Amino acid sequence: MKRSGETVSRLGIAQAAMVVLFLPGVAAGAELIVDGRFEHGQDGFWAGDGVALARDGGELCADVSAGGDIWDRLIGVNGVKLEPGLYYRLSLAATVDTARAVPARIQRAAEPWTVQSAFSIGGASVRTSFSADFMASDEEEAQLIFPLGGFDKPSRFCIDDVSLVEIAAPPAAANRANRGPAIRVNQLGYFPDGPKRATVISDARKAISFQLVDASDAVVGEGTTRPSGFDPSAGVRTHVADFSAYAVPGDGYRLVSGDWTSDRFSISDNLYGRLTVDALSWFYPQRSGIKIRGDIAGKAYARPAGHVGVAPNEGDKSVGCLTGDQARVLYGDWSCTYRLDVSGGWYDAGDHGKYAVNGAISAAQLLATFERARAFGGPQSPALGDRLSRIPESGNGIPDLLDEARWELQFLLSMMVPDGEPLAGMVHHKIHDTEWTSPPMLPSEDPKPRALHQPSTAATFDVAAVAAQASRLFANDNPTFAGELLATARKAWVAANANPVLPAPKSDGHSGGGDYDDDDVSDELYWAATELFLTTGDAKYLDVLRASPHWSGDVLPPTGAFHWRNVAGFARLQLALYGEALPKADLDMVRRSVLAAARTFLPLQAAEPFGQIYRPANHQYDWGSNQLILQNVIVLSAAFDLSGDKTFLNAARESMDYLLGRNALAMSYITGYGARSPQNQHSRWYAHQVDPTLPNPPVGSLAGGPNSTPVDAIAKERLQGCAPQTCYVDDIEAYGSNEITINWNAPLVYVASFLADAR
Ligand code: 9MR
Description:
Helix 5 runs parallel beside helix 16 (742-757). The chain is globular and about 80 Å long. The longest helix has 24 residues, at 584-607. It is built from 16 helices and 26 strands. A hairpin with a 5-residue loop joins strand 15 (209-213) and strand 16 (219-224). 29% of the residues lie in helices and 18% in strands. Residues 1-27 have low confidence and may be disordered. The chain is of the alpha+beta class. It has 3 domains: 21-169, Jelly Rolls (Sandwich), CATH 2.60.120.260; 189-267, Sandwich (Immunoglobulin-like), CATH 2.60.40; 273-757, Glycosyltransferase, CATH 1.50.10.10. The strands form 6 sheets. It has a 6-stranded mixed beta sheet. Residues 348-349, 351, 353, 514-516, 623-624, 735, 739, 741 line the site of ligand 9MR. The site of ligand 9MR has 12 residues, from loops.
């Protein structure tokens, strides 16, 4: 054991703060790491390929050979037995020869390697102490593991004083799931003929009685809860209170149990109409290249046009390709000499970037909302309306959903490499600043240069797909535009097939925009072939579909049926819903697969005390977990539209409970909906939290939601060891869990419109 030169890392300080909070109850349990001081030669640490272990000077050093992926070079120790629901403290001292953060995990020691807690050890070239507390969530034998690969030079990683001990549970208040009302409800409300369940946070082992109370404080129903045990996603024990049998519409209801009372909620058939409007109207002030009018968006949201070349912004009207070191590192010798007018479109999120893959799937989901309403919503569906949302085009004779999608479609078409140039017909992956800015920053105030990034196969197939989809939907209202869309779709299809390996790389993260990296385009190809087939009926696309691994593959997993990087699930739903031109056997197969996937979601929902359908890999909530839940709801909606089976409709309705407040944080994730909703999502222009002259995000803004990986400084400081559902903070700097994004609000529009229509 060495002590010289020991420092406390930033992380260490954050952890120290947690320790103060926990200290009163801390009682050290038995040491679970044998000889973690490396003094007796009895430790059980092992090394994988490419790593040599040396036990000298009272510490354990790993000499790591260059290369490989991060998981190709491992050291770890097995035989760790933890008890779910109990708390543990991991501590150690580490030295790395090149200063960098080293990941560490407590995970199951065998498939499926279920992660119980993930840490980042603030590695430094001087010995640095690390300590973190976490709650165990898995009873199988675990291992402590350090992935060390992925570096182009050999490196050395040394550890000492490795210790893992049980500690007393922190005071109940320290688990963020214990804050807020003990009874968690859908704060918006429940359908009279739908499931009505609430979740109670309680350690009680026996059922608890509860009452349903109306707005005049009269008890109108009562029942007892079903104890549902410890929920690892929330880190607490729960009960489920079911009051589905009560069907009288009204506002101001609440559930009561002893001293506890829930937030108020409605029972109503008209819960989602207003949300459809707000979630769709959210896109207008997200538009680039147009002045946002206060008389339309609301006074607080008026702002000058962004990126139209009015100083200090450089504008998107004539943008060249990325040059210099950034371009060389990312794209080798790729360059271009042309400049493009890529003004317009939507800003992706809280940043000023515009990314073709994310733009395509988002526009596609708005278009899908329209197509679904036309096919299944009945002639009166509001989603078909021309005065649906708050946009300048309202009342122009074209449905608002098409108007809004068109704003993005025109931008996407402009991202195509012009004829006569190398890679003609391919689509630039993205356009954004060459360096990151930070909030507050109105789009019109952004002084950074903008640049086009290399075209990618993924972006090109995605634009082929959404342009083909849009062309059939604009055929009546704007045949000229429909023709342009179809011609572009075909051109993109040809170009992407001619350039099948132009991946979108991971950037260094400092280049002013997100990566949207993707090197597997089999799903984008499948989506493009799907939309081209649905629009043209041309058998050549059917041949491509049949040859795709996604044709009959399992593409709708409960980890999130689809998202920007993996669009196969979306394509499958499109084929199932609109594939009447498929040969009958094929259509049957496709439809059966959607119904089968939706059926597998039902028992997952029944097993979740909070009613969400979401089974992320390793129980780790993903970046944008809320939208993954929405995509799963869309699978249920398709199953309902195909079968008319109300089991699917009710499952979709109940899934919304989680997003609207029946969750571990008692929080609605949609601004302006429910008793407590986010006000400070990460955005450069809805930056009220850091500049009081700017507004908060508008009503109907969906927050990304809990993210188990602490990516931003706020999460690193406040959310270490958080139970998955609680890894969220409503802070403008918490971009990893609290951003707004086009591909999150678009499925919200779809689901809200579906729930408003479906009976
Ligand atoms: O939503 C994206 C998520 O799936 C990725 O894991 C993450 C990191 O690459 O990026 C997210 O997208 C962000 C994008 O890169 C930049 N604009 C904001 C997006 C939402 O956070």
